[in-house]
Amino acid sequence: MELGITGRKAIISGASAGLGEACAIALAREGAEVTIVARTKENIEAAAEKIATLTKSRVIPVAADINTDEGRYAALRACPDPDIIINNSGGPPTGDFRTWDRETWFAALNNNMLGAIFMIRDTIDGMIARRFGRIVNITSSAVKAPISMLGLSNGARSGLTGFIAGLAREVAAHNVTINNLLPGDFETQRQKSYTQDLAKIQKRSYEEMRAIRIAGNPAGRFGRPEEFGAYCAFLCSAQAGFITGQNLLIDGGKYPGTF
Length: 259
Ligand code: NAP
Prior knowledge:
With 259 residues, the protein is of the alpha/beta class. It has 2 domains: 9-187 and 225-250, Rossmann fold (3-Layer(aba) Sandwich); 189-222, no CATH class. The protein is built from 8 helices and 7 strands. Strands 3-2-1-4-5-6-7 form a 7-stranded parallel beta sheet, with helices on both faces. Helix 1 (18-29) packs parallel to helix 2 (41-55), helix 4 runs parallel beside helix 5 (151-171) and helix 6 (189-202) packs across helix 7 (206-215). The protein starts with 8 loop residues before the first strand and ends in a 9-residue tail after the last strand. The model has no long low-confidence stretch (mean pLDDT 98). The structure holds NADP nicotinamide-adenine-dinucleotide phosphate (NAP).
């Protein structure tokens, strides 16, 4: 399927690895001009080179923390009028909520809620004026089914989800869509560190813990980042203009509910 986004300009944050990088690859393959953001300069530059080679396109790397004003402005200087925004950042630490102070909570809210909201605030009116916008927030399956060790994620991402539910309906008439894409378990660095934390708590080896987690997924495996990227690219397509305000789970069937 031709997605109708050739020449569309996209900013993808958290994109030197994992799910963000996969979204950038999928969008670049569809002809979008991608600007990718992550904090570590050498990694984001290496990712830009890799994506450019893979997709035969020009990719702009920005080394910045997307959850700061300076980082967001740097991304917007590199790509001033984006048509597509993929809001993504690292996940918060695991732990027991009894140990989390105000600073810890503020950091999680900044990284997994406010960063996306400020990026949307700074770009959505341009999208409305151009009558095309596609915004995808990478959140987590934790929004639908809380993960006990990840209370910071459960809380902060639910705040973003509630805000988006309202805003998506306000801008839909302008061909601007906003959706949240909820990853289950995907093969990335974040997945490895989460499995390691879980293994420590349950006093198991990493390999044993990983095997248990995989066995617990109806698909019998973790997701591949490229599967996530393909879904994201479709949500950014011309054809997806009637999909908005949705929380779309991609988890191999792990969430046990009927809906
Ligand atoms: P990952 O493999 O750890 O990659 C995270 C990427 O984000 C890296 O490129 C990292 O590079 C960048 N990043 C982190 N903080 C940033 C910041 N403040 N500004 C700009 N870039 C930043 O993570 P992932 O597995 O792709 O996960 C992406 C998101 O989905 C996370 O929020 C994660 O919690 C969530 N999620 C993932 C899974 C899964 O199974 N993988 C499941 C549920 C939810 P730098 O460190 O150099 O900045």
